[in-house]
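At your convenience, could you comment on the folded chain following this short note?
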Amino acid sequence: MNENEIRKIISDCCNDIWFVYNGKKSGITSEVKNYIPKFQAWHGESIKYYDNVNDVMNDKFYSGKSLVELLDSQEDIDLFIS
């Protein structure tokens, strides 16, 4: 999947994404409260909350890398979407 596809999935607030990176279970969930989307990311034991998709995509939260960097890298990362 590419950056735009993942960005759309996260923005739609209908699916969760999970993956393993650097040996840590990781993922992104979303919820909408009063028509306002909120996003939660986790990487191992760390959890972080976001107010917008750009921050979710660009924050270097995953062992010093952003989701954009992970998607652009040559590393083999399997993304699961539910």
Observations:
- DSSP finds three helices and five strands in the chain.
- The longest strand covers residues 24-33.
- The CA atoms of residues 19 and 79 lie 5 Å apart.
